[in-house]
UniProtKB/TrEMBL annotation:
It is found in: Endoplasmic reticulum membrane. This is Acyltransferase. It comes from Sphaeramia orbicularis (orbiculate cardinalfish). Belongs to the diacylglycerol acyltransferase family. Keywords: Acyltransferase, Endoplasmic reticulum, Lipid biosynthesis, Lipid metabolism, Membrane, Transferase, Transmembrane, Transmembrane helix. GO terms for biological process: triglyceride biosynthetic process. It is a multi-pass membrane protein. One of its GO terms (cellular component) is endoplasmic reticulum membrane. Its main location: endoplasmic reticulum. The gene is mogat3b. It comes from the Eukaryota. The keyword Lipid biosynthesis applies.
Amino acid sequence: RSKIQSVAGMTKEKTQWKELLEALSVLQWVLTFLFLGLSCIILLVCLMFTSLWPLSTLCFVWLVIDWQTPERGKENDSIQSSMTVYGFHFKKLKTADLSPNKNYIFGCHPHGIMSAGAFSCFSTESCGFSEIFPGIRSCLAILAGLFRIPLFREYIMSAGLYPVSKASLVHLLSKSGKGNAVVIVIGGAAESLSSSPGMNTVVIKQRKGFVKVALEFGADLVPVYSFGENELFQQVIFSEGSLGRKLQDLFKKVMGFAPCLFVGERFALLPYRKPVTTVVGHPIPVPKRLMPTEEEVDHYHRLYMEALTKLFHEHKVSCGLSESHKLQLI
């Protein structure tokens, strides 16, 4: 009996340590998302007024010299690690095979507060992307302005991230061979403002640039939906026309991202322990058109929205939503 009690005590202690390490790892990820870029800017500016000013100068000089590198990417497999952490987990479901002889544009929805589903599934190997889609290389494209922050840009480049810019997309879809899946969180900052538990709002109706790029390079479109993304944090949602929403929209227009007021489960920052299931839909065949017409862009944009809606309704119940949940496209 004493041996059993000893083993039980050791198991409990290991579980507690495991939970602590998981909580710390997620806290690090959240703090990095929220504050690392700003911290890098503040650090370099402060160093300019000290005897260490040459360090800041060298960082800014390197930024100018190395300006084009983010568009070409910087692969590093050291960060391709598991993200089954803090009592919640990420998983990916595929609905069709993808040919490694094609290039793809994945439209990922919804943005959520931090795009946890997109990052974990397409910028790490936590969901086993390379095993599920052999021969396909996922490339997550994020806000281009983040790659203009010295030091921070090196950090996000080491994670294999790309700027969501035309130059970056051209490189990935025309100069990197075949088997590339460029992942774009289509709704961006505007969609993050609609992120809250129980809401399934997708900003897509006026977002047609990704469809035009797909036509220019003949890249098939693939709708992706992360069920549970909006359940990770509670957000204060300001109504349209309110002062709070106007300030958010102004900040988004100036800075390119929206300041969301949100809280999590512990320390107000850790996400709620909810599973996130990212479902990758069927590819939509797209022909190559060097100069696509507006009618062609509208046609494939409509096909994409229909495929996204179908994907949502086919998998919502199995992914934890009720039959009554609807997908709102705005």
